[in-house]
Specification:
The protein is mainly alpha-helical and 456 residues long. The chain has helices at residues 2-8, 26-41, 101-106, 123-126, 128-142, 148-154, 167-185, 203-229, 240-244, 246-265, 270-289, 297-322, 327-354, 357-360, 366-369, 375-383, 386-392, 400-410, 413-432, 439-453, and strands spanning 79-80, 83-84, 233-234, 237-238. It has 20 helices and 4 strands.
């Protein structure tokens, strides 16, 4: 118990204090633990997420980030196997405190697509062969489940007929090609490699495997989300839990995460392992944050980062780390993925109102019916405060959804959400301009535009 206290408890008023109180029994334990955990974990300012949390105490350096100096080195110039103890020092440690809401409200200098003089290239066509190889590789990886039913469930969304657009691995592959195109043309003065580092001989194979890992993590999260949300449709077909049952859907998601973890370890880059592992923590944090009803637009956007944008951001960042590119390029890769991810989810929020079952592959107003207040709702509540009452009770009373829809459609909520999505797409594009012009860089820019212009 004392060990668990040290590792899990965040303060004298602790999340699990009553769990260790022998006077608390049965259901009371469950209720206390559940309520305290939800209350604390959904608070973004909670000390459990702080680096100063006693649970983060360092034991001989084993809890230090892998990008920190090697703990046994005394000086900055000491090396291990010829490599200095510091590699990236957590390139772009994002405080998640800027969502560019003022840019969306007050106007901004809009990027002129014509002035960018982009190659006329379709990102999906440019990577068609890569994506065929990737889909085949994914099926091979998950076919090793060792149990026919588990393998069938795990492969459910990797079939050609239901594979989706695979935007996340697409981003990783395009970015990998774009960085390589820049570096291959670079002179000594324009190299984007980190000083003193070289590139591995199997770089693109490693980056393609990273793209597969990103898609496995994403698909695992879909399996788990559909069970939590009791969803019956995904991508226009029955969800995995509807076909295989909740238990098998959860196990299939767990299996995909396990396969992703093995593949990640075999990349043999500990900073990439740490970066990609952070995504899984973020997915859980985002899901728990979603249980709150007293949400602001800022906390909502942070939740979206955890649930959607982190996977894109940290996968792109990892592709740059694998290539030993400079910290500037690592930051740019992260920012591109982050802002595309934020824009992607904001457009999803709008499509939940403006789309239809055929184009979305899921019921319209699914979020409202699930009790979730998304960006259009939160913006609409600024015009019609009566919505705040409906949001607080998660649209649970009869007629709440219809009443909310009335106010949302009368407001500027959806228009403001679209503008904010465009702001983030433009931030993503600006981040990429540090790379030389190439077909693949320009395909990434076209992808950012497609994200905000899409109808599915």
């Amino acid at each position: 118990q004392q060990y668990l206290r040290k590792r899990l408890l965040s303060s004298s008023t602790t999340v699990l204090e009553d769990f260790f109180d022998s006077t608390v029994k049965g259901e009371a334990v469950q209720n206390v633990v559940k309520n305290r955990i939800i209350e604390t974990v959904t608070d973004s300012q909670s000390p459990i997420w702080s680096e100063n949390n006693p649970a983060q105490s360092r034991l001989n350096g084993i809890d230090d980030p892998v990008s920190a100096p090697f703990p046994h080195l005394n000086g900055a110039n000491e090396t291990v196997n010829g490599v200095n103890g510091v590699r990236y020092q957590h390139a772009y440690k994002d405080p998640l405190d800027e969502w560019f809401l003022k840019d969306a409200e007050q106007g901004r200098n809009k990027l002129d697509k014509d002035q960018l003089n982009l190659h006329k290239v379709d990102p999906f066509e440019l990577t068609r062969n890569d994506m065929v190889d990737l889909t085949s590789g994914l099926r091979d990886l998950v076919s090793q489940a060792g149990h026919p039913l588990l393998a069938s469930a795990a492969e459910y969304f990797f079939a050609e007929s239901s594979a989706g657009k695979k935007v996340r691995p697409l981003m990783v592959l395009l970015l990998s090609h774009a960085m390589n195109a820049h570096q291959s043309k670079a002179s000594n003065g324009s190299s984007i490699l980190k000083s003193g580092y070289h590139q591995r001989s199997d770089l693109f194979d490693a980056q393609r495997r990273l793209a597969e890992i990103a898609e496995m993590i994403h698909t695992a999260s879909l399996f788990h989300d559909d069970v939590i949300d009791k969803s019956e449709l995904r991508r226009g077909k029955p969800s995995a839990n509807a076909v295989f049952g909740n238990k098998m859907a959860i196990l299939a998601g767990d299996f995909l995460l396990a396969r992703a973890s093995i593949c990640l370890a075999r990349l043999r880059d500990v900073e990439v392992v740490e970066t990609m592992s952070t995504i899984i923590e973020h997915l859980v944090r985002g899901e728990v944050m979603q249980t709150k009803s007293n949400v602001t637009i800022e906390t909502y956007l942070k939740k979206n980062y955890f649930k959607t944008a982190s996977l894109m951001a940290n996968s792109c960042k990892s592709a740059a780390i694998l290539g030993n590119y400079s910290i500037e390029v690592v930051d740019a890769a992260y920012l591109y993925g982050k802002h595309v991810g934020v824009a992607f989810q904001l457009v999803d929020d709008v499509l939940d109102f403006e789309g239809n079952l055929d184009t979305l592959g899921k019921p319209v107003c699914a979020d409202l019916n699930a009790g979730l207040a998304t960006a259009p709702v939160l913006f609409a509540a600024e015009e019609f405060p009566v919505l705040e009452t409906l949001i607080a009770r998660k649209f649970s009373n009869e007629g709440d959804v219809e009443e909310a829809l009335h106010y949302i459609t009368q407001s500027q909520g959806m228009a403001r959400t679209k503008v904010l999505a465009q702001v983030h797409a433009e931030r993503a594009i600006s981040a990429l301009l540090c790379l030389d012009k190439s077909e693949h860089r320009d395909a990434l820019i076209h992808l950012a535009y497609k994200v905000v212009d899409r109808s599915t």
